[in-house]
Amino acid sequence: MLVNARDMLIQARDGHYAVGQFNINNLEWTKAILLTAQELNSPVILGVSEGAGKYMGGFKTVAAMVKAMDESLGITVPVALHLDHGTYEGAKACLAAGFTSIMFDGSHYPIEENVAKTTELVALAHEMGVSVEAEVGAIGGEEDGVIGAGEVADPAECAKISALGIDFLAAGIGNIHGKYPANWKGLDFVALDAIHNSTDTIPLVLHGGTGIPADMIQKAINLGVSKINVNTECQLAFAAATRAYIEAGKDQQGKGFDPRKLLAPGFEAIKATVKDKMELFGSVGKA
Ligand SMILES: [Zn+2]
User: Catalytic: which of 14, 70, 84, 105?
Assistant: First the structure.
């Protein structure tokens, strides 16, 4: 059931668990995530970066595929279709395409411009029943070609942005996108606590969920994180399973070249990864 992400994240915040955002890249990704959410009776957020939207043939294509699949597979758990790290133009395009949730990433603008653009997008989105995520303090690592330095967001700026009527807030707390380096210092829980206290209990979003140790995830949820983004981990699992299939020569046995067979191990690997994360985040049975 396609819905916006507002209510599911308020419930997660109040219930002290987090909803996973899993980024999609194609039909297999989408189907694996939807079926796992349904099997585990968990709410779920499908994330679409601007790059992935372009890759799949445009935001309209993505919205049509997700809506049709949600219906055809009989998915009854709450599913939000969410733009990940949207530009101002991208956010507007997703509203027109029928996304149920958008992120406007204005973190690279001066704070006043971030405020102005976020305000405008919140008004447009809410008129259409679409939820809005905003970002303060760039997330480290690579974000569709944009390199951030692992910043920690300023609680005063977080308060300013969260007061604009946004539904949930991404704030940098030392987290980064992609694989974490060996010398990573960990999440900054002092900063997270300060942000949580300055933002009037707005659900907080943790980006870069791949490879953060389970105890840090748990602590972050206890300190107000209600949405955790996972992208790289599904990609790594899919690649490893596909590599194993081909290295075992299975694509050269019988009809092993059939894409439905060739992509099956990767599909199952995504399902297993999503299941692990939903269990870790505590969203199982919360639909
Ligand atoms: Zn992110």
Answer: 84
